[in-house]
Design brief:
alpha/beta; elongated
Length: 260
């Protein structure tokens, strides 16, 4: 599968939390390199995050730095592998930055993890292997990002959950105006306030960091604390999806799709 004239850019928004990088993005990069036999550059689309990590042992590039590096190394083709869950604003912004180099490089970009009905079913099959959804608990699968871009993927994922009989699981778009109200409506319909069932808040993000921790759990006005104040036995799972090997292998499939 190795290609001598191609190089891979693994692109994420980035993090300044070293442990989060090591157990998610670094593992994806290493496994992609082993699987493809190609060199993989670690890219953060957040330039400040990339620069803050640039003095660390493993080089982290901005988008433009990585493309210039590919040219300097003599590569003519670049495969950009975004880690993003959906084709949202981060995905589109990355594509725009790549397009500026189309006159100098042959650039391909893989799909996001969730992009149509089949990819959502595929993700759910993988998710089941490590999430172990308990029928005696209620689940709020929280997706982060602009609702305008993410709505279709979330709808497909909810349909996949429904098809598999997971009536106790609801996809919530955190940034949607009435996301908390939607969660309460779902939990009331499930009679979670009467049964006392545990409500598990699970973020659908690749790498866990302080920002999401504050929004979902740490802060007094966070999602979990608001649920608790409303009378629910809410807990959260503070793990990024990228920590699970089965999830990381989905990037192999996205890579294969553009190499066919």
């Amino acid at each position: 599968m190795s290609s001598k004239d191609s190089i891979i850019m693994l692109a994420s928004v980035g993090t300044t939390v070293i442990r989060a990088k090591v157990i998610t993005y670094d593992k994806i990069r290493e496994e992609l390199a082993d699987y493809s036999g190609m060199e993989v550059l670690q890219v953060f689309t957040d330039d400040s995050a990339a620069h803050s990590m640039s003095d660390k042992e493993d080089k982290v590039y901005t988008v433009e730095e990585a493309l210039e590096r590919a040219i300097a190394l003599g590569y003519s083709k670049v495969i950009a592998v975004p880690v993003f869950m959906t084709k949202g604003e981060l995905y589109n912004s990355l594509k725009s930055r790549l397009d500026f180099y189309l006159d100098r490089l042959d650039i391909k970009m893989t799909d996001s993890i969730l992009y149509d009905a089949d990819s959502c079913r595929e993700f759910l099959e993988v998710f089941e292997t490590f999430a172990q959804l308990d029928p005696n608990k209620e689940y709020l699968l929280v997706e982060h990002g602009n609702p305008y871009y993410h709505c279709a993927a979330n709808t497909y994922l909810q349909k996949a959950l429904d098809e598999k009989g997971y009536a106790n699981a609801k996809v919530i778009q955190l940034k949607e105006r009435d996301s908390f109200g939607q969660a309460i409506t779902f939990l009331k319909a499930r009679h979670a306030d009467e049964t006392g069932a545990q409500v598990v808040v699970t973020p659908l993000i690749v790498a866990w960091g302080d920002y999401m921790a504050n929004e979902l759990y740490n802060a007094q006005d966070s999602f979990v604390w608001r649920l608790r104040n409303a009378g629910y036995r809410a807990v959260f799972t503070g793990a990024g999806l990228g920590e699970f090997e089965a999830f990381r292998k989905l990037y192999f499939k996205r890579l294969d799709a553009v190499k066919e």
